[in-house]
Amino acid sequence: MSTAYKTVTDIAGPLLFVEEVEGVTYDELCEVELQSGEKRLGKVLEARSGLAIVQLFESTQGITTEGTKVRFLGRTFELGVSEDMLGRIFSGSGRPIDGGPDIVPEKKLDINGAPINPYSREFPEDFIQTGISTIDVLNTLVRGQKLPIFSGAGLPHSQLAAQIARQARVLHKEEVETEGASGSDAKAEGKFAVVFGAMGVTFEEAQFFQQEFEKTGALSRAVLFLNTADNPVVERIATPRLALTAAEYLAYEKDYHVTVILTDMTNYCEALREVSAARKEVPGRRGYPGYLYTDLATVYERAGRIKGKKGSITQIPILTMPEDDVTHPIPDLTGYITEGQIRLDRGLHQKGVYPPVIPMGSLSRLKGKAQGEGVTRSDHSGVDAQLTAAYARGVEVRELAVILGESSLSETDKAYLKFADRFEKEFIAQGEQENRSIFQSLSIGWDLFMELPKAELKRVKAAHIEKYLKKRS
Predict the structure, then answer these.
(1) pLDDT band at residue 182, thresholds of 50, 70 and 90?
(2) What is the rounded CA–CA span in Å between residue 200 and residue 226?
(3) Chain-centroid distance, C-alpha 412
(4) Segment 227-248, tens digit of pLDDT
(5) How far apart are CA 85 and CA 105, in angstroms?
(6) Any alpha helices (H) in 143-290, and if so which ranges?
(7) How far apart (Å, rounded) are the C-alpha atoms in residues 448 and 416?
(8) Is 273 helix (H, G, I), strand (E, B) or coil?
């Protein structure tokens, strides 16, 4: 039986300060017993000579310095994992909340994971189809990549996250060869799973995610971890690690291609700031802890592929930029760690365009590995470059027309203006339940090129113009 310490000297926010302790280690789990006999779980956040700072996974309400006992359990926070987790919904602390039985684990894994040796990593490759044109064509998602979505308050990132979770899959080789099968009809290459972690979301958002997965049948291949805003703030810090632990088990031990969606990383960082303030640490930029970059890296760098393993982890973190400020510490540091970003635009959203993904400001740095013959289609990279350039020119012309009037524009400028309008309405805009294959998205792109003079198509090869444009004209 472990020693029960009755030496709690202070309580600050979610933290307990326990003195006169011996043999306590960092990250060790502990059990806090109240005077009433109620027990709560916590972990050691800091351990030094004679003092342990304990972070509770539940509220500190009702805890007093007198009569409270703390037992250190000699182990870290572990998640019991099994393939039976697929189709289940858990709380942010890993307890089932869907009314089903507890999981009988095949093994228990430390939620902090183990660092991947850089030598053991395989370079991310292979196209992941999300069914969303602006992502598949312009910001192609690569298996093993970490590609965040930068959003803002009031923008439909929750709907976009649910749509990606429902539709994302790895294309079958036969589809690439025949350019066939729509996103909803085709079979995926290998086993595919989604792990969804929600942090600090509202009760309505949690219900929305749960219902979206259930009504579309996507829950059967998904694992959900839901931490709502009324749950303890410390649970929010554990939620993404629980999700990634489940993903690592499915990917590296059960050979699944796993897409991990984490929303909202801003709430996660706010939880870090709250705990840091309770510890009286010296604040960094805008009050966030100085180790924010390191902490985010421990989450983001758990994506990837490992040599000799069939499975992979692709990560899509979602964050809301405070005041739409891309220089805010959270998006700023996230951009340094991840391989690009997908940005949602408030202007497009106000026009009623869904999903409001803006090509300018969005970038997938690894997309070149998942575009081209044998992966998608030989014209993919050219269509990507031409669409982005033409839309950027169209936006410039639109701004010029406001100042000078449309009558002052040249015929070429008018063509770009018409292209930009159609691009927003036909290419960017699509329904929440609309699942386009990459080949359907590329075809829409070629249809839009009909608006432009042939001489302006400088970023697509002549052979591709001959093959795809003439077929439409």
Answers:
(1) very low
(2) 8
(3) 40
(4) 999 888 888 999 999 999 999 9
(5) 9
(6) 157-167, 173-178, 203-216, 233-252, 265-278
(7) 10
(8) helix
Q: Using only C-alpha atoms, what is the Rg of the chain?
A: 25
Structure tokens at 100: 């089903």
- CB-based burial label for 352 (10 Å; 0-12, 13-18, 19+): exposed
409: alpha, beta or left? (left if phi > 0; alpha if psi -120 to 50): beta
Token output for 83 = 């393939």
Separation between Cα atoms, residue 449 and residue 460, nearest integer Å? 10
Lowest mean pLDDT among 144-153, 185-194, 299-308, 388-397: 185-194
E-assigned strand segments in 362-404: 363-364
CA geometry: angle at 388 spanning 167 and 259, to 5°? 25
CB count within 10 Å of CB 365 equals 14
Helix and strand numbers (H, E) in the chain are 13, 22
**What does the alpha-carbon distance between residue 421 and residue 423 come to, in Å, rounded to a whole number?**
5
Q: Which H or E element spans position 413? A: helix 411-422
Question: How far apart, in whole angstroms, are the C-alpha atoms of residue 82 and residue 101?
Answer: 13
**Of the candidates 66, 93, 64, which has an alpha carbon nearest to the alpha carbon of residue 78?**
93
Helix, strand and coil content of the chain, in percent to the nearest 5, comes to: 40, 25, 40
Q: How many CB atoms lie within 10 A of CB 424?
A: 19
User: What is the full DSSP assignment across 48-107?
Assistant: ETTEEEEEESS--TT--SSS-EEEE-SS--EEEE-GGGTTEEEETTS-B-SS-PPP--SE
Nearest CA to 347 among 154, 82, 212? 154
User: Model-level pTM?
Assistant: 0.88
CA 400-406-409 angle, to 5 degrees, is 75
